[in-house]
Batch of 2 targets.
Target 1
Amino acid sequence: MPRPLKIDFVSDVSCPWCIIGLRGLEEALARAEGAVDARITFQPFELNPQMAPEGENIGEHIAKKYGSTPEQSAANRQMIRDRAAALGFAMNGTADSRIYNTFDAHRLLHWAEIEGKQAALKHALFTAYFTDQQDPSNHDVLVAAAEKAGLEGAAAREILVSGRYAEEVRAAEQLWQSRGISSVPAIVIEDKWLISGGQPPEAFEQALREIAAQLA
């Protein structure tokens, strides 16, 4: 009988390693279907909580944050594109792409968990940002993603306009930071084990099987 596993996936929708990690984890769970039965909850983390509404050029942002040269940034983007493509996900970013504030996206994800459609919305948001190069702070983009995930568009827009779930998202962000999470993706299993980064499916599968065996 598969071992139930509680998995908290701490991430941001503008984090390329987060979608790579998620696709790797999902593939690993499919491979380990007979051994584990996971319930994934997506927890909020903002890479750039102070980002201006208009966003920032990704190349300029990376250069300022990490000191990367344009050549290094281009090589890194290609490596990330290749990793994502190997997992069936298309990243279409260029040197002209922008990075945005994602707080409203996290508010919608909080609501989507209540509605039982959080995973679908998470995937829709990753696709909107990385594949379609859309602005995940734009309310029209967020409503469209919610509808794609099977959520009510009018309800999504009302949440965005009203500011609902802001306190809950802030509290969750602070909780995970207080637990030592300072980079994402951070995959926390049963509140005890931490797997960091966009690991390949093989690494996730091995870890999941070992954890399930320890809990058995």
Note: The chain is about 55% helix and 15% strand.
Target 2
Amino acid sequence: MPFELPDLPYAHDALAGNGMSKETLEYHHDIHHKAYVDNGNKAIVGTEWEGKSLEEIIKGTYDKNAVAQSGIFNNISQLWNHNQFWEMMSPGKSEMPSEVEAALNDSFGSVDDFKKEFAAAGAGQFGSGWAWLVKDTDGGLKVTKTENGVNPVCFGQTALLGCDVWEHSYYIDFRNKRPAYLDNFVDSLVNWENVASRM
């Protein structure tokens, strides 16, 4: 079965009060995410990856020795990234569960220090990419950043939180102010219950 574009878990205008407009979601989900789905499906037809899971394709096509990845990897990884991204945001005020707060305090010193490190990773990613909070292979938490569509699946890590820093994610609402977008993301958009469910 070909991969499908998942519905947003909320209305297109549900995040507007938190800093992500209806127009951004219409472009980002309905056009950009859909393009990754459509192009990814086309790219795997007739290949060994047809019928495999997103994670299997990502792990199998990622080339750790190359910056430029294949068309299959780029589209399938971005499909996966966006599937996670929508779930990682909440239209309502999301309270941070105590286990998340404790884990962030243990790993980063404080929640505020985590937020600063996460936002700095995203702001410091040259060009397109993502900022991540991951559970590493040793079970510890750390902040990472990846170029283009590369994601924690490539490294055997568990993605707890991810923020898209491609321009299509923030330019309508924040223009070229990526740091402001990232600060707003960690302060107003994160679904902390979703983060807890991934731990």
Note: The beta strands are 129-135, 141-147, 158-164.
